[in-house]
Amino acid sequence: MADRGVSPTVGVTLMVAIVVVLAAVIAMMALGFQDRLQDPSPQGGFTTEVNHDGDGNAGKPYFELTYEAGPTADPSRIIIKDSSGNSVTWKDVWTTSGDVRASEYIHIDGFGSDGALNHVCNEGQTFYIIHQNEAGETIVTIEYEIPVTPDPSNAPSGWC
């Protein structure tokens, strides 16, 4: 009767072999997805508010872009782009140095430090707030459209 059973040594060896093969298959499947992993998209929330009469901005209409929430951000990685494809970074417009923190803001009017952008002149003009991660990948955080044509009565000549 002793000749009919499988020895415990052979059973343990087969069990170890099965576990090793199974672990290798799982590891290869898991490592196969590594090239599909991406850096997380930048996080942060922005708000916009248009100022049509240009109060506090030499009469030029502008919109205020506020970094409302999120971790501190590199100002050179926050891009403001107009519908013509012109762009500036937060760093170009911002008068403070260092990272951008919650509740900090800039004015966008298309003059001065953000003069590369179209002037804030007409209803329907579109501006894009783009966040760029360290790998250079971008995500449009806000697509902001000027809601109404600003009042030109206070604006300096040549504002549009």
TrEMBL record:
N-terminal signal peptide: none
KW Zinc-finger (keyword) present: no
Keyword Transmembrane: yes
Sorted UniProt keywords: Membrane, Transmembrane, Transmembrane helix
Bilayer-crossing regions: 12-33
Domain Archaeal Type IV pilin N-terminal: 4-87
This protein's name: Type IV pilin
Organism the protein comes from: Haloglomus irregulare
